[in-house]
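[Automated response] Your request has been received and processed.

Submitted sequence:
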Amino acid sequence: MMKHQQKQGISRELLRKEVMLAMLVAVGVVISPILRVEGMCPMAHLINIVCAVLLGPWWSLLCAVLIGTIRMLFLGIPPLALTGAVFGAVLSGVFYRLSNGKILAACLGEVIGTGVIGAVVSYPVMTLLWNGTGAYNHLTLFFYVPSFIGGTLIGGAAAFLLLGALSRSGQLALIQKKLGAKVYDHPNAARSGAGNPAA
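Generated structure:
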C-alpha cells in the first residue's frame, strides 16, 4: 500500500513537471521574438532561468533544446537558437543549486553559460555551417559575446525581478514543493532580499 502511494506521488510530481515544462516551452516560443535581434534573445534567457529555478538544470536543458528546435524549424532562426541557450540553461540550474537557492547565482550562471561559453561555441558552428559566406564571412571568435551578454543581462534582470517577487510572496517555495523540486526558501520566514533566501 505504501509503495503504491509513493509511486502515485512520484507519478504526480513527474506529470506536474512535464506540464510545467510544456507551458514554459510554449511561452518561450511565443515570447522569443520580443526584443530579438540576431544573436540576442532576452526572453529565451528569462525562460532558461525560470525553468532552472523551478525544475533544475536538466529540465532547463531540455526546455532550451525544445524551444531552440521549434524556433529553428518554424521561425527560421539559425542554430544560435541552440548554441545560445543550452549552456546557460544548465549553468543557471547548477549555480542555483550550488549557491543554496540564490536567484542572483542562477542569473549569473545564465550570463556565463550563454554570454561567454555559448557565444564562443557559436563561432565555429556558424562558420562551419555557412563556410564564411554572406553575412557570416566577418565572424571572429568573440563576435557574439557582446550581443549574447546583452541579451542575458536583459533576460536575467527580468527573471530576477519575477522570481524575486515570487520568493518574497512565498509562492516560489510553494511552486517548487508542488513540482517536487528542491526548496530553498522558507515561505513563512522574513527575507531581506529576493536573491538571498534562507538556506
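Summary generated for your ticket: Residues 189-199 have pLDDT under 50 and may be disordered. The chain has one domain: 16-179.
If you did not submit this request, please reply to this message.
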